[in-house]
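Table S2 (text version). Query chain:
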Amino acid sequence: MLMHIALVPGDGIGPDIVSEAVRVLGMVGQKFGHQFDFSTYLAGGIAIDTLGTPLPESTLSGCQESDAVLLGAVGGPKWDSLGGDQRPEKALLGLRGGLGLFCNLRPALLYPQLAAACPLRPEIIGDGLDIMVVRELTGGIYFGKRGKNEAGDAAFDTMAYTVAEIERISRIAFDIAMKRHKHLTSVDKANILETSRLWRSVVNRVSKDYPEVRLDHLYVDNAAMQLVRNPRQFDVIVTENMFGDILSDEASMITGSIGMLPSASLRTGDFGMYEPIHGSAPDIAGQDLANPIATILSAAMMLRYTFALEAEAAAIEAAVIQTLDEGWRTKDIMSTGMRLVGTKQMGSLIAQAV
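Corresponding structure-token output:
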């Protein structure tokens, strides 16, 4: 099976961690008899420096022609002074919009081996955490009309949603809940926002097609509080774009390390873009210090969601667990008695475990 994968390493540690994911995918190919065709494209700050734009047309078209995209990270202080339309992060919005990626999956999984890194008390996390955040990705305030007045002393950003946008993301969330513990929490701000009232009404209507799934609703401020007070109450969370951006970061941090968590951005069909949830960390770029596990696990999600290769995805995930069980740690997840390794050795160990 030949799989065409667009690599977008991006900035900072992006190239370091994407290289290790490619290494692990190569081992998967050897073990299971698959072939991967990788093409590399520029996006983010490096694209600004090289081609004058955060998202070159060649990158977008190359990604559109691939089966899946594996992204590293974009941005950094070097480009913070640029205007909104020229910032590296514009590449992310452009890829999501240009590729039609409306669904972002962010699993927040606390590995037993890293339980000590969780900032919550042991009695709160119990025997572990396993939450899936389903975030709508191409609507809401990030994609609404925005601007400033002529005087420059006022600005606006518009949050807007359609029934169709809400229905398609909620159906994905219900489908995922059906495969897990059949519990879905929808997060909104329906006591204040008209878009949230529409959101809640559509989710309630869709829920009638999933009678086995227990549905509850939380206001976003309460959801943020509940994630640190009692995170084990959650199974699948579905919410709009900005709320999902914030809550998924919060959920990731209560698992102990942002360097461990992958994500998938999907559209209708099997195409997806896969990336770690952490940033570009330019201060450690090229120093063999970055944790590649989130990117490697993003590659596992790619095998699962785009190529329907469950055994191959599970092999990567099992290899990560085996490597952690053996005591190997990068600096960000290091603890007393463990064995410290760099980016490249961690990738090599996981590939060997595969």
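Notes on Table S2: Residues 1-102+269-354 form a domain with the Isopropylmalate Dehydrogenase fold (CATH 3.40.718.10). The first strand starts at residue 2 and ends at 10.
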